[in-house]
Design a protein that fits this description.
mainly alpha; 5 helices
Length: 175
């Protein structure tokens, strides 16, 4: 069962990476178009900026979720590494609980925000509901919540092959 869950989370992790990467690529294409349309064609397009903002939110929330699983997030461990091991374990457990609370909060209240604003439309994009622009918030929160629960149940997964595929493999020889 554990291996099945971990493989499922590997797929979820790769999905987060792909979504984040495609968002960055799309932003990299949309922003120059907006600049070109404004300064070369002399007619500014209204859609590049709101779409780029939505893509940045997508990149941020799904990228942060993947970074948490890969242990690639910013962590200041200077103080905690100098504490006794029992205190380090206690702080690690407290951090896990806090991460669960934050991810749960983002998921729950992000979903409420989406539902409450679904009937409104974006000014420059009348076909797009405002609630749709907020969807990355609860979805990214949910993926983070899943990865936090995985960390609590199975430990850190930052060394899995799906996460470290591009890292050089180092052979450790016995001394």
């Amino acid at each position: 069962m554990k291996n099945k869950i971990l493989r499922l989370n590997d797929t979820l992790y790769l999905t987060c990476i792909w979504i984040s990467g495609l968002s960055v690529i799309a932003m990299s294409l949309i922003i120059p178009w907006g600049i070109f349309a404004r300064y070369v064609l002399g007619t500014g397009s209204q859609w590049p900026e709101p779409i780029a903002i939505v893509l940045m939110v997508v990149f941020t929330f799904f990228g942060a979720s993947a970074a948490y699983r890969a242990r690639a997030h910013i962590a200041v461990a200077m103080v905690t590494e100098r504490l006794p091991k029992p205190t380090q374990r206690l702080l690690a457990s407290a951090i896990d609980v806090l991460m669960l609370m934050v991810a749960g909060f983002v998921t729950l209240y992000g979903a409420k925000l989406c539902m409450e604003t679904w009937g409104q439309t974006v000014g420059q994009l009348p076909w797009m509901p405002v609630g749709a622009t907020y969807l990355p918030v609860p979805l990214g929160g949910l993926t983070t919540l899943i990865f936090v629960m995985e960390h609590i149940a199975f430990g850190q997964q930052g060394d899995r092959a799906v996460v470290t595929f591009d890292h050089p493999k180092v052979k450790v020889e016995a001394a």
